[in-house]
């Protein structure tokens, strides 16, 4: 279920909630909807990852025999049941907030299954498919105020671009990759950083945003440059792992950009938790 990654999906939800402006409207904090949406994304991400292993069970017997299904830790049937329950729970929990949230959760679940079954085998549509899952996840957080989707839906393009680059990079994780893909990833990373900085500048929050964007940049580029220099599986895997975990800092930058400074620090505080979990459980 990739617990370290699940933490990053919760960070996406909190970033979307910050963008919605609901925390700065002077009213009490809507704890219950926040819990529903955070629990929803945890179930959706966990379920999607379980089905990733379900669909890859035969391939993992050869390439990654240590994973849960090929190692015999869990049967294929039970893994399928677990994944299904998690996805249904994710959709139901989101629907408790609103019908709009439920529909977005359904989209996340559908696109996760599409990626696991078909998308991962395509060099372009696979990364795009995975990027859309994260884009919809940010919108799932934003849907805590459904009306805000009409004015801020376009922000989802940023996590789509970012996850597109990570997914594209991950294709060389097992057998090594090509430096040209890593250079393209570096270019896309730069676009993401500049885009967030632009919105922070427009909202007069650039200095606060840099507090998170600078370490974010360092975390993603340091292993990526190492992989560019030597594009072997180990280095590429390290770049992918750093890219996934660093999502937390990107989400913190989103939060502070939309004047949710306290929430930005709360999101950033999830980083040590995700790093700790990444030492206990696989990230990729």
TrEMBL record:
It holds the Pfam family UbiA. The keyword Cytoplasm does not apply. Keywords: Cell membrane, Membrane, Transmembrane, Transmembrane helix. The chain crosses the membrane at residues 6-24, 31-51, 85-115, 151-170, 182-201, 207-225, 237-256, 262-282. It is a multi-pass membrane protein. InterPro entries: Prenyltransferase_related, UbiA_prenyltransferase, UbiA_sf. Gene3D superfamilies: UbiA prenyltransferase (1.10.357.140). Its main location: membrane. It is found in: Membrane. The keyword Nucleotidyltransferase does not apply. CDD domains: PT_UbiA_1. This is UbiA-like protein EboC. It comes from Pedobacter riviphilus. The lineage of its organism: Bacteria, Pseudomonadati, Bacteroidota, Sphingobacteriia, Sphingobacteriales.
């Amino acid at each position: 279920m990739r617990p370290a990654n699940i933490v990053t999906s919760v960070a996406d939800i909190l970033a979307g909630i910050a963008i919605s402006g609901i925390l700065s409207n002077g009213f009490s904090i809507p704890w219950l909807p926040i819990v529903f949406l955070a629990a929803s994304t945890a179930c959706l991400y966990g379920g999607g990852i379980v089905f990733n292993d379900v669909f890859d069970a035969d391939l993992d017997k050869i390439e990654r025999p240590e994973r849960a299904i090929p190692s015999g830790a869990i049967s294929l049937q039970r893994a399928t049941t677990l994944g299904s329950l998690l996805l249904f729970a994710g959709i139901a929990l989101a629907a408790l907030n609103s019908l709009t949230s439920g529909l977005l959760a359904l989209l996340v679940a559908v696109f996760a299954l599409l990626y696991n079954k078909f998308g991962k085998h395509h060099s372009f549509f696979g990364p795009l498919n995975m990027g859309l899952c994260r884009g919809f996840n940010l919108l799932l957080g934003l849907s805590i105020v459904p009306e805000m989707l009409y004015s801020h839906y376009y922000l989802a393009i940023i996590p789509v671009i970012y996850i597109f680059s990570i997914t594209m990079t991950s294709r060389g994780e097992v057998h090594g990759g090509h430096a040209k893909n890593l250079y393209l990833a570096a270019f896309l990373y730069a676009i993401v950083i500049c885009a967030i900085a632009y919105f922070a500048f427009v909202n007069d929050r650039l200095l606060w945003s840099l507090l998170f964007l600078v370490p974010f940049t360092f975390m993603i580029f340091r292993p990526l440059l190492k992989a560019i220099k030597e594009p072997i599986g180990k280095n590429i895997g390290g770049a992918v792992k750093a890219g996934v975990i660093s999502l937390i800092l990107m989400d913190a930058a989103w939060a502070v950009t939309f004047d949710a400074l306290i929430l930005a620090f709360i999101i950033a505080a999830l980083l040590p938790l995700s790093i700790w979990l990444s030492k206990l459980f696989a990230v990729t």
